[in-house]
Amino acid sequence: MECIKKITSILLAQLPPQYVPTIDHFFFNIDLWTNFDYYITLFTNGKFIPSEFSFIPNETPISTLKEVSTYILTYYIIIFGCRYILQNYVPLKLKGVSQIHNLLLTSISLTLLVLFVEQLIPLIYRHGLYFAICDAQAWSQPMVTLYYLNYLTKFVEFTDTLLLVLKHKKLTFLHTYHHGATALLCYTQLIGETSISWVPITLNLSVHVIMYWYYFLASRGIRVWWKEWVTRFQIIQFLLDIGFIYFATYQKIVHTFAPQIPHCGDCVGSTGATIAGCCIISSYLFLFIAFYIDVYLRRGTKKSRIVKRARGGVAAKVNEYVLIDVANAATPSPSPAPSFRNRKSNGHKNGSHRKQRVHGSLN
Protein backbone atom coordinates (compact mmCIF):
# COMPACT_ATOMS: atom_id res chain seq x y z
CA MET A 1 0.00 0.00 0.00
CA GLU A 2 2.86 2.36 0.85
CA CYS A 3 4.44 1.57 -2.51
CA ILE A 4 1.22 2.58 -4.31
CA LYS A 5 1.07 5.84 -2.34
CA LYS A 6 4.67 6.67 -3.24
CA ILE A 7 4.11 5.95 -6.93
CA THR A 8 0.91 8.02 -6.91
CA SER A 9 2.70 10.94 -5.22
CA ILE A 10 5.52 10.80 -7.77
CA LEU A 11 3.07 10.78 -10.70
CA LEU A 12 1.00 13.63 -9.28
CA ALA A 13 4.14 15.67 -8.69
CA GLN A 14 4.83 15.53 -12.43
CA LEU A 15 1.48 17.13 -13.28
CA PRO A 16 1.01 20.90 -13.61
CA PRO A 17 -0.88 22.21 -10.52
CA GLN A 18 -4.03 22.94 -12.52
CA TYR A 19 -4.31 19.27 -13.56
CA VAL A 20 -3.88 17.67 -10.13
CA PRO A 21 -7.06 15.64 -9.40
CA THR A 22 -9.41 16.86 -6.68
CA ILE A 23 -12.35 15.23 -4.92
CA ASP A 24 -14.82 17.25 -7.00
CA HIS A 25 -12.96 16.83 -10.29
CA PHE A 26 -11.15 13.53 -10.13
CA PHE A 27 -10.09 13.34 -13.77
CA PHE A 28 -7.12 15.76 -13.93
CA ASN A 29 -9.19 18.51 -12.26
CA ILE A 30 -11.31 18.84 -15.41
CA ASP A 31 -14.98 19.68 -14.83
CA LEU A 32 -16.37 16.93 -17.06
CA TRP A 33 -20.03 17.66 -16.32
CA THR A 34 -19.73 21.35 -17.28
CA ASN A 35 -17.88 20.46 -20.48
CA PHE A 36 -20.40 17.73 -21.30
CA ASP A 37 -23.26 20.15 -20.70
CA TYR A 38 -21.67 22.76 -22.98
CA TYR A 39 -20.89 20.48 -25.91
CA ILE A 40 -24.19 18.55 -25.84
CA THR A 41 -26.09 21.84 -25.74
CA LEU A 42 -24.01 23.07 -28.67
CA PHE A 43 -24.39 19.82 -30.62
CA THR A 44 -28.19 19.71 -30.18
CA ASN A 45 -28.52 23.46 -30.89
CA GLY A 46 -30.03 23.98 -27.43
CA LYS A 47 -32.75 21.33 -27.85
CA PHE A 48 -31.26 19.21 -25.08
CA ILE A 49 -29.47 20.94 -22.19
CA PRO A 50 -28.19 18.31 -19.70
CA SER A 51 -27.98 20.75 -16.75
CA GLU A 52 -31.65 21.73 -17.20
CA PHE A 53 -33.12 18.30 -17.88
CA SER A 54 -35.96 16.94 -15.74
CA PHE A 55 -37.51 13.50 -16.07
CA ILE A 56 -41.26 14.08 -16.17
CA PRO A 57 -43.53 11.01 -16.58
CA ASN A 58 -46.00 11.32 -19.48
CA GLU A 59 -43.99 14.23 -20.94
CA THR A 60 -40.40 13.01 -21.36
CA PRO A 61 -39.97 10.63 -24.33
CA ILE A 62 -40.39 6.92 -23.41
CA SER A 63 -41.52 7.83 -19.88
CA THR A 64 -44.67 5.70 -19.65
CA LEU A 65 -45.14 1.97 -19.15
CA LYS A 66 -47.14 1.81 -22.39
CA GLU A 67 -44.27 3.32 -24.39
CA VAL A 68 -41.52 1.15 -22.94
CA SER A 69 -43.69 -1.98 -23.25
CA THR A 70 -44.38 -1.13 -26.90
CA TYR A 71 -40.67 -0.72 -27.64
CA ILE A 72 -39.78 -4.00 -25.93
CA LEU A 73 -42.61 -5.89 -27.65
CA THR A 74 -41.59 -4.41 -31.02
CA TYR A 75 -38.02 -5.55 -30.35
CA TYR A 76 -39.11 -9.16 -29.86
CA ILE A 77 -41.46 -9.10 -32.87
CA ILE A 78 -38.71 -7.74 -35.13
CA ILE A 79 -35.93 -10.10 -34.07
CA PHE A 80 -38.00 -13.28 -34.08
CA GLY A 81 -39.91 -12.21 -37.19
CA CYS A 82 -36.70 -11.42 -39.06
CA ARG A 83 -35.12 -14.67 -37.94
CA TYR A 84 -38.07 -16.61 -39.38
CA ILE A 85 -38.22 -14.63 -42.64
CA LEU A 86 -34.46 -14.65 -43.27
CA GLN A 87 -33.78 -18.30 -42.43
CA ASN A 88 -33.58 -19.26 -46.12
CA TYR A 89 -31.49 -16.25 -47.15
CA VAL A 90 -27.72 -15.91 -47.22
CA PRO A 91 -26.39 -14.44 -43.95
CA LEU A 92 -25.01 -10.93 -44.13
CA LYS A 93 -21.45 -10.22 -42.96
CA LEU A 94 -21.94 -6.58 -41.89
CA LYS A 95 -18.33 -6.37 -40.73
CA GLY A 96 -18.06 -2.60 -41.08
CA VAL A 97 -21.46 -1.99 -39.50
CA SER A 98 -20.55 -4.20 -36.53
CA GLN A 99 -17.29 -2.35 -36.01
CA ILE A 100 -19.01 1.05 -35.98
CA HIS A 101 -21.78 -0.28 -33.73
CA ASN A 102 -19.37 -1.73 -31.14
CA LEU A 103 -17.04 1.28 -31.19
CA LEU A 104 -20.00 3.63 -30.74
CA LEU A 105 -21.39 1.69 -27.76
CA THR A 106 -18.04 1.32 -26.02
CA SER A 107 -17.51 5.09 -26.43
CA ILE A 108 -20.98 5.95 -25.09
CA SER A 109 -20.52 3.57 -22.16
CA LEU A 110 -17.12 5.06 -21.29
CA THR A 111 -18.43 8.63 -21.50
CA LEU A 112 -21.38 7.91 -19.20
CA LEU A 113 -19.17 5.93 -16.82
CA VAL A 114 -16.65 8.74 -16.24
CA LEU A 115 -19.48 11.25 -15.81
CA PHE A 116 -21.07 9.00 -13.18
CA VAL A 117 -17.74 8.54 -11.40
CA GLU A 118 -17.20 12.31 -11.28
CA GLN A 119 -20.56 12.70 -9.51
CA LEU A 120 -20.13 9.74 -7.17
CA ILE A 121 -16.61 10.31 -5.79
CA PRO A 122 -17.44 13.53 -3.87
CA LEU A 123 -20.84 12.12 -2.84
CA ILE A 124 -19.39 8.96 -1.29
CA TYR A 125 -16.30 10.72 0.10
CA ARG A 126 -18.32 13.37 1.97
CA HIS A 127 -21.42 11.40 2.98
CA GLY A 128 -20.57 7.69 2.83
CA LEU A 129 -21.79 4.71 0.81
CA TYR A 130 -25.12 4.27 2.61
CA PHE A 131 -26.03 7.91 1.92
CA ALA A 132 -25.15 7.44 -1.76
CA ILE A 133 -27.42 4.44 -2.21
CA CYS A 134 -30.33 5.30 0.09
CA ASP A 135 -30.62 9.06 0.71
CA ALA A 136 -32.96 11.31 -1.27
CA GLN A 137 -30.21 13.89 -1.80
CA ALA A 138 -28.30 11.35 -3.86
CA TRP A 139 -31.07 11.67 -6.48
CA SER A 140 -29.53 14.85 -7.91
CA GLN A 141 -30.26 16.60 -11.21
CA PRO A 142 -27.00 15.54 -12.94
CA MET A 143 -27.54 11.94 -11.81
CA VAL A 144 -31.10 11.91 -13.17
CA THR A 145 -29.84 13.18 -16.53
CA LEU A 146 -27.23 10.42 -16.65
CA TYR A 147 -29.79 7.81 -15.59
CA TYR A 148 -32.06 8.87 -18.44
CA LEU A 149 -29.26 8.86 -21.03
CA ASN A 150 -28.23 5.40 -19.86
CA TYR A 151 -31.88 4.32 -20.13
CA LEU A 152 -31.97 5.46 -23.76
CA THR A 153 -28.85 3.44 -24.58
CA LYS A 154 -30.73 0.27 -23.60
CA PHE A 155 -32.90 0.73 -26.69
CA VAL A 156 -29.85 1.43 -28.87
CA GLU A 157 -28.41 -1.86 -27.63
CA PHE A 158 -31.40 -3.69 -29.12
CA THR A 159 -29.46 -3.47 -32.39
CA ASP A 160 -27.04 -6.04 -30.91
CA THR A 161 -29.68 -8.69 -31.48
CA LEU A 162 -30.71 -7.39 -34.89
CA LEU A 163 -27.12 -7.72 -36.11
CA LEU A 164 -26.99 -11.29 -34.80
CA VAL A 165 -30.21 -12.10 -36.69
CA LEU A 166 -28.97 -10.58 -39.95
CA LYS A 167 -25.74 -12.57 -39.63
CA HIS A 168 -27.70 -15.78 -38.80
CA LYS A 169 -26.01 -16.10 -35.40
CA LYS A 170 -27.62 -18.13 -32.65
CA LEU A 171 -30.05 -16.25 -30.39
CA THR A 172 -29.91 -17.39 -26.78
CA PHE A 173 -32.67 -16.96 -24.23
CA LEU A 174 -30.28 -15.16 -21.87
CA HIS A 175 -29.32 -12.62 -24.55
CA THR A 176 -32.83 -11.76 -25.72
CA TYR A 177 -34.32 -11.79 -22.21
CA HIS A 178 -31.52 -9.62 -20.82
CA HIS A 179 -32.06 -6.80 -23.34
CA GLY A 180 -35.79 -6.51 -22.70
CA ALA A 181 -35.50 -6.96 -18.93
CA THR A 182 -32.73 -4.37 -18.57
CA ALA A 183 -34.71 -1.71 -20.44
CA LEU A 184 -37.69 -2.39 -18.18
CA LEU A 185 -35.45 -2.31 -15.09
CA CYS A 186 -34.04 1.12 -16.00
CA TYR A 187 -37.57 2.44 -16.57
CA THR A 188 -38.91 1.24 -13.22
CA GLN A 189 -35.99 2.81 -11.34
CA LEU A 190 -36.38 6.15 -13.13
CA ILE A 191 -40.08 6.26 -12.32
CA GLY A 192 -39.48 5.12 -8.74
CA GLU A 193 -36.51 7.50 -8.14
CA THR A 194 -34.32 4.89 -6.49
CA SER A 195 -30.95 6.38 -5.52
CA ILE A 196 -29.27 2.97 -5.61
CA SER A 197 -29.68 2.94 -9.39
CA TRP A 198 -26.08 4.06 -9.89
CA VAL A 199 -24.73 0.76 -8.51
CA PRO A 200 -26.03 -1.62 -11.22
CA ILE A 201 -25.72 1.09 -13.88
CA THR A 202 -22.04 1.92 -13.28
CA LEU A 203 -21.16 -1.77 -12.96
CA ASN A 204 -23.01 -2.47 -16.21
CA LEU A 205 -21.30 0.43 -17.98
CA SER A 206 -17.89 -0.83 -16.81
CA VAL A 207 -18.63 -4.25 -18.26
CA HIS A 208 -19.95 -2.74 -21.49
CA VAL A 209 -16.82 -0.66 -22.02
CA ILE A 210 -14.77 -3.88 -21.96
CA MET A 211 -17.34 -6.05 -23.75
CA TYR A 212 -18.01 -3.78 -26.73
CA TRP A 213 -14.30 -3.03 -27.06
CA TYR A 214 -13.68 -6.78 -27.21
CA TYR A 215 -16.42 -7.17 -29.84
CA PHE A 216 -14.87 -4.32 -31.83
CA LEU A 217 -11.45 -6.01 -31.78
CA ALA A 218 -12.98 -9.39 -32.64
CA SER A 219 -14.83 -7.89 -35.62
CA ARG A 220 -11.43 -6.67 -36.88
CA GLY A 221 -9.97 -10.15 -36.51
CA ILE A 222 -7.85 -9.24 -33.48
CA ARG A 223 -7.60 -12.00 -30.89
CA VAL A 224 -7.02 -11.07 -27.24
CA TRP A 225 -5.92 -13.12 -24.24
CA TRP A 226 -8.53 -11.61 -21.92
CA LYS A 227 -11.61 -12.91 -23.76
CA GLU A 228 -12.80 -15.02 -20.81
CA TRP A 229 -12.49 -12.02 -18.49
CA VAL A 230 -15.48 -10.41 -20.24
CA THR A 231 -17.71 -13.14 -18.82
CA ARG A 232 -15.88 -13.09 -15.49
CA PHE A 233 -16.58 -9.38 -15.12
CA GLN A 234 -20.24 -10.02 -15.97
CA ILE A 235 -20.45 -12.63 -13.21
CA ILE A 236 -18.75 -10.26 -10.72
CA GLN A 237 -21.15 -7.50 -11.75
CA PHE A 238 -24.12 -9.79 -11.22
CA LEU A 239 -22.97 -10.83 -7.72
CA LEU A 240 -22.37 -7.22 -6.64
CA ASP A 241 -25.77 -6.19 -8.07
CA ILE A 242 -27.47 -8.94 -6.06
CA GLY A 243 -25.73 -7.89 -2.84
CA PHE A 244 -26.54 -4.18 -3.12
CA ILE A 245 -30.11 -4.63 -4.41
CA TYR A 246 -31.02 -7.17 -1.73
CA PHE A 247 -29.58 -4.90 0.97
CA ALA A 248 -31.62 -1.91 -0.26
CA THR A 249 -34.75 -4.03 -0.68
CA TYR A 250 -34.41 -5.30 2.89
CA GLN A 251 -34.07 -1.74 4.21
CA LYS A 252 -37.13 -0.58 2.24
CA ILE A 253 -39.41 -3.51 3.10
CA VAL A 254 -38.49 -3.61 6.79
CA HIS A 255 -38.71 0.17 7.24
CA THR A 256 -42.13 0.27 5.53
CA PHE A 257 -43.82 -2.87 6.86
CA ALA A 258 -41.88 -4.02 9.95
CA PRO A 259 -39.90 -1.11 11.47
CA GLN A 260 -39.41 -3.04 14.72
CA ILE A 261 -36.93 -5.37 12.92
CA PRO A 262 -33.30 -4.13 13.03
CA HIS A 263 -32.32 -2.15 9.95
CA CYS A 264 -30.27 0.90 8.94
CA GLY A 265 -33.19 3.07 7.82
CA ASP A 266 -35.31 3.76 4.79
CA CYS A 267 -33.98 3.58 1.24
CA VAL A 268 -35.40 6.31 -0.99
CA GLY A 269 -37.57 5.21 -3.90
CA SER A 270 -41.08 3.87 -4.33
CA THR A 271 -41.95 0.46 -2.94
CA GLY A 272 -43.14 -0.65 -6.37
CA ALA A 273 -39.81 0.25 -7.99
CA THR A 274 -37.91 -1.52 -5.20
CA ILE A 275 -39.90 -4.73 -5.64
CA ALA A 276 -39.72 -4.54 -9.46
CA GLY A 277 -35.94 -4.05 -9.37
CA CYS A 278 -35.49 -6.91 -6.90
CA CYS A 279 -37.65 -9.24 -9.02
CA ILE A 280 -35.80 -8.46 -12.27
CA ILE A 281 -32.38 -8.85 -10.63
CA SER A 282 -33.58 -12.09 -8.97
CA SER A 283 -34.61 -13.46 -12.36
CA TYR A 284 -30.93 -13.33 -13.36
CA LEU A 285 -30.13 -15.25 -10.16
CA PHE A 286 -32.62 -17.95 -11.17
CA LEU A 287 -30.86 -18.27 -14.53
CA PHE A 288 -27.56 -18.89 -12.75
CA ILE A 289 -29.26 -21.41 -10.45
CA ALA A 290 -30.58 -23.15 -13.57
CA PHE A 291 -27.02 -23.23 -14.91
CA TYR A 292 -25.77 -24.82 -11.67
CA ILE A 293 -28.55 -27.45 -11.65
CA ASP A 294 -28.11 -28.33 -15.34
CA VAL A 295 -24.33 -28.64 -15.13
CA TYR A 296 -23.48 -29.81 -11.62
CA LEU A 297 -26.55 -31.65 -10.31
CA ARG A 298 -27.78 -33.36 -13.49
CA ARG A 299 -24.37 -34.88 -14.06
CA GLY A 300 -25.29 -37.57 -16.53
CA THR A 301 -26.97 -35.34 -19.10
CA LYS A 302 -25.48 -34.49 -22.48
CA LYS A 303 -25.45 -30.76 -21.71
CA SER A 304 -23.69 -31.30 -18.38
CA ARG A 305 -20.90 -33.37 -19.93
CA ILE A 306 -20.35 -30.90 -22.78
CA VAL A 307 -20.23 -27.84 -20.50
CA LYS A 308 -17.95 -29.48 -17.94
CA ARG A 309 -15.40 -30.26 -20.64
CA ALA A 310 -15.11 -26.60 -21.66
CA ARG A 311 -11.56 -25.44 -21.05
CA GLY A 312 -11.13 -22.71 -18.47
CA GLY A 313 -12.85 -21.69 -15.28
CA VAL A 314 -16.45 -20.87 -14.41
CA ALA A 315 -16.64 -18.08 -17.01
CA ALA A 316 -15.70 -20.48 -19.82
CA LYS A 317 -18.34 -22.95 -18.66
CA VAL A 318 -21.02 -20.26 -18.48
CA ASN A 319 -20.15 -19.21 -22.05
CA GLU A 320 -20.39 -22.81 -23.24
CA TYR A 321 -23.69 -23.29 -21.40
CA VAL A 322 -25.24 -20.18 -22.98
CA LEU A 323 -24.07 -20.86 -26.53
CA ILE A 324 -24.38 -24.64 -26.70
CA ASP A 325 -26.68 -26.16 -29.31
CA VAL A 326 -27.49 -29.45 -27.58
CA ALA A 327 -29.50 -30.89 -30.46
CA ASN A 328 -26.62 -30.63 -32.94
CA ALA A 329 -23.68 -31.12 -30.59
CA ALA A 330 -21.84 -34.44 -30.50
CA THR A 331 -22.41 -36.43 -27.34
CA PRO A 332 -19.15 -36.76 -25.42
CA SER A 333 -18.34 -40.18 -24.01
CA PRO A 334 -18.23 -40.30 -20.22
CA SER A 335 -14.76 -40.10 -18.71
CA PRO A 336 -13.57 -43.55 -17.57
CA ALA A 337 -13.20 -44.00 -13.83
CA PRO A 338 -9.50 -44.08 -12.89
CA SER A 339 -8.18 -47.48 -11.87
CA PHE A 340 -6.35 -48.08 -8.58
CA ARG A 341 -3.03 -48.41 -10.44
CA ASN A 342 -3.59 -45.12 -12.31
CA ARG A 343 -4.54 -43.31 -9.12
CA LYS A 344 -1.43 -44.65 -7.40
CA SER A 345 0.93 -43.78 -10.27
CA ASN A 346 -0.55 -40.31 -10.63
CA GLY A 347 -0.66 -39.60 -6.91
CA HIS A 348 2.63 -37.72 -6.79
CA LYS A 349 1.76 -35.66 -9.89
CA ASN A 350 -1.68 -34.75 -8.56
CA GLY A 351 -0.23 -33.71 -5.23
CA SER A 352 2.54 -31.59 -6.71
CA HIS A 353 0.12 -29.70 -8.94
CA ARG A 354 -2.80 -29.41 -6.53
CA LYS A 355 -2.35 -25.71 -5.95
CA GLN A 356 -2.31 -24.96 -9.67
CA ARG A 357 -5.50 -26.96 -10.29
CA VAL A 358 -7.37 -25.33 -7.40
CA HIS A 359 -6.28 -21.89 -8.57
CA GLY A 360 -7.47 -22.66 -12.11
CA SER A 361 -10.87 -23.89 -10.96
CA LEU A 362 -11.48 -20.70 -8.99
CA ASN A 363 -10.71 -18.60 -12.03
TrEMBL record:
Family assignment from sequence similarity: Belongs to the ELO family.
Record localization: Membrane
Keyword Ligase attached: no
Superkingdom per UniProt: Eukaryota
The entry's keywords: Fatty acid biosynthesis, Fatty acid metabolism, Lipid biosynthesis, Lipid metabolism, Membrane, Transferase, Transmembrane, Transmembrane helix
Transmembrane segments: 68-86, 98-117, 197-217, 229-248, 268-293
Keyword Transferase: yes
Enzyme class label: transferase
GO molecular function: fatty acid elongase activity
Protein name: Elongation of fatty acids protein
